[in-house]
């Protein structure tokens, strides 16, 4: 499919095998105006497009979108912009290694993938969402040579999500679009939370400080980090408390203050609820393990 088009393109293409059965192509190349191709059976491709414009029977795939294609059928590609930049992942689903190893044991990845893409006519465009914005933001900061492996892992994650629970985005069956500014703002709030984990942090205060709506903040945060703001913050506070209990001699009340609790008793109740041990007993057991 697209990998065959790259063979006759001009520009930069760096291809290699990430793991057995999975090829990665980092590309910045110039393509013909159109191409009609038919990939081989048991093959799927995913283009993480960072610049360019590809028109397919499923619609237009452009910047910061992901194009999924199934082999074994004919596809027509039209390149409105001859220059194409991004990462192409090509997966052979006939074996049991590579992408298949990333799924649960016993999963028929080939059947799941083929069934999903067959219902889309063999081509599917995953549009902009909080998930994809996070992927492309991380991709932008990776050094050349690492992008292929990263996209291969994210392709496995995307395929897993699409085939296991349907397209994310609720009742419409479409991925929800999140404005890139909102996504970047929520990422900055996340970093601020981790840097100020000992402070009193509330959704209203954070929303006001970063000038976004509380509802948008909560929804986008859950999409990006997989947990509510409250649950995520509580988990990070407990993790930090465990580190301090294990590695320092700080009194429990000081540790409680440093992770945002107003009293040692409140901290102790939450800690025991989570770990079934008091903070002091946890400290002692961790030190006995390290003797």
Please tell me about this protein's structure.
It is a single chain. By secondary structure, the chain is α+β, with helices and mostly antiparallel strands. The chain folds into three domains: 2-170, Jelly Rolls (Sandwich), CATH 2.60.120.10; 180-226; 235-289, Arc Repressor Mutant, subunit A (Orthogonal Bundle). 45% of the residues lie in helices and 24% in strands. The protein has eleven helices and eight strands. The chain has helices spanning 2-7, 109-118, 130-141, 147-165, 180-195, 203-210, 214-225, 229-247, 252-258, 264-275, 279-289, and strands at 10-19, 22-30, 34-38, 43-56, 59-62, 65-70, 74-92, 123-126. Strands 1, 2, 3, 4, 5, 6, 7 and 8 form an eight-stranded antiparallel sheet that branches. Strand 1 (10-19) and strand 2 form a beta hairpin. Helix 5 (180-195) packs across helix 7 and helix 9 (252-258) packs across helix 10 (264-275). It starts with a helix and ends with a helix. The model is unreliable at 166-174 (pLDDT under 50).
Provide mean pLDDT, rounded: 81
Using the 3D structure, state the CATH architecture of the largest domain.
Sandwich
The poorly predicted ranges are 166-174
SS strand fraction: 15-25%
How many helical elements?
A: 11
End-to-end separation: 58 Å
User: Quick one: biggest sheet?
Assistant: 8 strands, antiparallel
Helix content: 40-55%
CATH superfamily of the largest domain: Jelly Rolls
Structural class by secondary-structure content: alpha+beta
The helix/strand series, from N terminus to C terminus, equals HEEEEEEEHEHHHHHHHHH
CATH topology of the largest domain: Jelly Rolls
Question: Which CATH first-tier class of the largest domain would you pick?
Answer: Mainly Beta
Q: Radius of gyration, rounded? A: 23 Å
Shape: elongated
Number of domains: 3
Task: Please tally the β strands and state the result.
Answer: 8
